[in-house]
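Question:
Write out your own:
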Amino acid sequence: MQKKGVMFPLLDGILQSIIEIDEKRSSLDDVLDNPHLIMAEMRRTASHWLFSFFRYRICVEEYIRKFANNGRIKKNLFRFAAASVVHCAFQNHVAREKMVNVFVEYAKIKYGFSEGRFINALLRKVCRENPEFKAVLPEWCSRHWRKIFGSEFVKTAEKCLGCEPVDVFRLRQGFEIDGFEYEILPCDLQKFTFFQTSEIDKCIESGCFQHGGIYIQDAATGFAVELLDKYLPQKQGSFIDVCGAPGGKSIMFHDLRPDWQITVGDLSFKRHKRTAENLHRCNVNAALECFDASTFEFKKQYDAVFADVPCSNSGVFRKRPDVLYRFDEKSLHEVVEIQKKILDNIASAVADNGFLLYSTCSIEPAEDGGQIRNFCLRHIEFELLEERLTLPDVMHDGSYCAVLRRNAK
């Protein structure tokens, strides 16, 4: 179709991104990093647009259905209608009237003249009424979590979904913040200090960040590392993070145990490039290895093995709302099997009287406590020492962690 300015290519990219996510081929991060979908110069606009789309999608689609009197709308036109409504409702920096004209012309070219008239009437109504769209969980997810955690958690989850997440960073010991506004983030951590800022660009440009004093990560990442540290002996030892890119939790471990030998492994060579950059910036000495943790034959044993495994990401939906549309029973079963293979394979890498730390950014019992209890049944030499489930709220993500000890035979 004819390209007009930057908006038509951007619309093509937005719509294809939604299809990629709906069909579970890509995540929101994937599509934003794909230059064939989203042009680099439009990444910030596309990011805000897509994040808003997946946060408010349920209410926006219901609004469109009512407007159409529940008439049949072709799937791709329906996606476009929802994306254009979201833009008009939440993208206030561009004049609405001008954007309505762009959307209508795009619809006429791509879908047909009558479809363009439908979009025109819909968007004029949005501009007149200024409807307030609320963040609502998809029905399957809402029903599923209500059964597990209760109605109050569903209310909290929808509140989290509707909140613009703050930018959070950890300040490492021995450094001072300079050059930007910040405030401390209240969280239940004893050994790490987190802050929030509305000036993340200035944060990244600051000398403190450039010299390794700041690491941008969610506060929930600290729970697993603190739990492991609680049980480790004071002597030196060896530590491997088997799913470790881009290195944030390994750097946290180093900050608590600077004398330990650290190895960071990961399946992705591309992600490990970022690991190397982060370790260098933070002046952390660690060995890097690329391997598949579910099949790799470990040549040695370690005093502590950390597996922050691939998961459904169900605990991070406030930052990655697309998770809610890639998450279902089938995908949950698939990721549980991947986790099981990783756990079974790395068990032999844990030394006698050594420790296994398992973590996810999921709140699903099948990925968390259920996974660990089944592992202990298969590997009776392992003893569960402690576990922690953190449900998401407006200040931090959800997560799970468990520390186990391998008892000597």
In short: The longest strand covers residues 350-360. Residues 23 and 326 are 8 Å apart (CA to CA). The radius of gyration is 23 Å.
